[in-house]
Amino acid sequence: MLFAIVAKAVAAIVETVRRNAAIEQGFEDQPTAVINMLALWLVHKFVLFGFAVSFTPVGLVEFFFCYFPKSMYSFAMAMFTLELAAADVVSDVIVDTVTGIGGNESWLSTNINREHLNYYYGLLTFIGILNYYYLVICWAYGPIQGEKHEASDGKEDDKFGYRELPTS
């Protein structure tokens, strides 16, 4: 989640630089104009988003397999995909909200040089920071003092349901 938050903050900064460059070059009313700016400015954002997309599900799946009973693995994964669907709905609500803010120019409009996409990325960064409440939940969640997570025969791998593959 930290990668996603930093990526959104970087996207806000890059969009601010891009918009300022468009205005300085006189393209404020020309959304299709080519701005004298390298596309490499976007690399940082996409690399950070790539890390976020690759690390977040790995930690979540590990949590499911470590703390959920075997009979709930598929239920937990189904809830994960349901959460993704709910996040898409919330994203649509946020976009609809920032599109109609006040009577001024929309944050998201057809003229990329007049809109404030940087404000939108800033809002997403702020929401991501607020979402760190999960650290408190993670800190509070865990084994009870003195509780062991090992299986009864002392093998740690048994709790994961691992089996040795037959050798030939």
Secondary structure elements and their pairing?
Elements: H1 2-24, H2 43-67, H3 73-99, H4 117-130, H5 134-140
Question: Would you mind describing this structure in some detail?
Answer:
The protein has 168 residues and is mainly α. It has one domain (2-130). Helix content is 57%, strand content 0%. It is built from five helices and no strands. Helix 1 (2-24) packs antiparallel against helix 4. The longest helix is centred in the middle third of the chain and has 27 residues, at 73-99. The radius of gyration is 23 Å and the shape is elongated. The two termini are 43 Å apart. Residues 149-153 have low confidence and may be disordered.
Based on helices, strands and strand pairing, what is the structural class? mainly alpha
User: What integer is the average pLDDT?
Assistant: 80
The helix count comes to 5
- Count of distinct structural domains: 1
Which stretches are poorly predicted, pLDDT < 50 over at least 5 residues?
Answer: 149-153
Number of DSSP-assigned strands: 0
Estimate what percentage of residues fall within beta strands: under 5%
First CA to last CA: what distance? 43 Å
Helix content: 55-70%
Major β-sheet, in short?
none
Task: Return the string of H and E elements.
Answer: HHHHH
Radius of gyration: 23 Å
Shape: elongated
Give descriptors for this structure.
168 residues, mainly alpha, 5 helices
